[in-house]
């Protein structure tokens, strides 16, 4: 599992890119999960209801390294908007964003690494996706 720090410019972006390249060498062919602040750009997981508010560099890193799963947040509305979603796939990588639901019980995503599944629970219901291929 790689937890990526939030970055805010070219120097810190380069550090994240270097971290992912170094971690890729350590992970090899094992299942790799990332925790990343913002969802990928142009993904239903980054849709605010008015525009995509995602990270273009994350899309490039996913295409380069192809982790099994990327867990992100930042865009709270996407699972609850038309054309938005809690789940997306970029190549073989599953991307999830639980979103923020109003009220005392938060939306959540349960990850089962043995089964290769992600299960989203919210007031809107329960849905499941697989990170075992497209």
| Count of individual beta strands | 8
Distance between the termini: 21 Å
Strand fraction equals 25-35%
Give the mean pLDDT.
Answer: 95
Q: How would you characterize the largest beta sheet?
A: 5 strands, mixed
Q: Helix and strand string, N-terminal first?
A: EHEHEEEEEE
**How many distinct helices?**
2
Strand order of the largest sheet: 1-2-3-5-4
Taking all Cα atoms into account, the compactness measure Rg is 14 Å
User: What structural category do the secondary elements indicate?
Assistant: alpha/beta
What layout of secondary structure does this protein have?
Layout: E1 2-3, H1 10-27, E2 33-35, H2 56-65, E3 69-72, E4 87-90, E5 93-97, E6 108-112, E7 117-122, E8 125-130
Parallel strand pairs: 1-2, 2-3, 3-5
Antiparallel strand pairs: 4-5, 6-7, 7-8
Description of the structure:
- The two termini are 21 Å apart.
- The protein is globular.
- The strands form 2 sheets. It has a 5-stranded mixed sheet. A 3-stranded antiparallel sheet has the order 6-7-8, with no helix packed on it.
- The protein is built from 2 helices and 8 strands; from the N terminus they run E-H-E-H-E-E-E-E-E-E.
- The model has no long low-confidence stretch (mean pLDDT 95).
- By secondary structure, the protein is of the alpha/beta class.
- The longest helix is centred in the first third of the chain and has 18 residues, at 10-27.
